[in-house]
Amino acid sequence: MTPTQPLFPEIDSIEAITKEAVLFVRDNCPNGIEVGFSGGKDSICTAKIMELSGIKYSLVYAFTGIEPPEIVRFIRNHYPQCQIRVPKRTFWRSLTTNVPPSDRLRWCCTLLKKDNHDSVLGIRSEEGSKRANRPRINHWKGRTTYHPILYWKEWQVWDFIAENNLPYPKLYDEGFDRLGCIVCPYHSEKTGKLHALYRKRWPFMFKRFEREIAKLYQKRVSQAKTMAYDSPEAFIQAWYLDDSSRWYAK
Ligand code: SF4
Fold first, then answer.
1. Which of 20, 30, 156, 216 could disulfide-link to 152, CB 3.0 to 4.6 Å?
2. What Gene3D superfamilies does the record point to (predicted)?
3. Residues lining ligand 1, Cβ inside 6 A
């Protein structure tokens, strides 16, 4: 059996999951809604589901300034209707006053990606334990997010893209199975392949990150702060290896 043959065609086939996802958004967002669009494969499917549903929707991309430039180009070329939302303070500017982001303190996600609108998101439970526990309709801090493709498997995502002849970023063909911010505490050296691929493909982004961290480190030392690591280089190595590396000494 090939991986693209559904086990239960009546519920697993591309036709069946498409119908189900379209009904889900029609039932839950009949009056129109914003779609958080990342330019990745899951977002591409979600945008198509919205189009098929006939519901009024708008695509919004949260620009971080630390994403692959290819993604922004892809969105501009293939989704010109997508609004690219640029934050008031960029990641680099915020890094001059914050501690470096970490797995426990993801201030950049909050600052650059979160908004207060209800929205449809293309998250999938396969992508990690946090997402696996998310409900399909999530109410959080006065905001509701809807996840029409939450239970789709990766093969279904790719089959849906192929069946609908949708464009997708060619970075996937180069081995990037997930696309997002280039310097991110989520993909450290510990997580392996992705970090190595990112460093090889976009070394300039890592160089800038290391430069900014060194400046921030020196600034804090001059303010008589007690740092957890002896040098910015030692911190950076720890950050690349361990999502929870500390900045200040306890
Ligand atoms: S770098 Fe990582 S934690 Fe920060 S905004 Fe990007 S995805 Fe979120």
1. 156
2. HUPs
3. 64, 101, 106, 108-109, 112-113, 180-181, 184-186
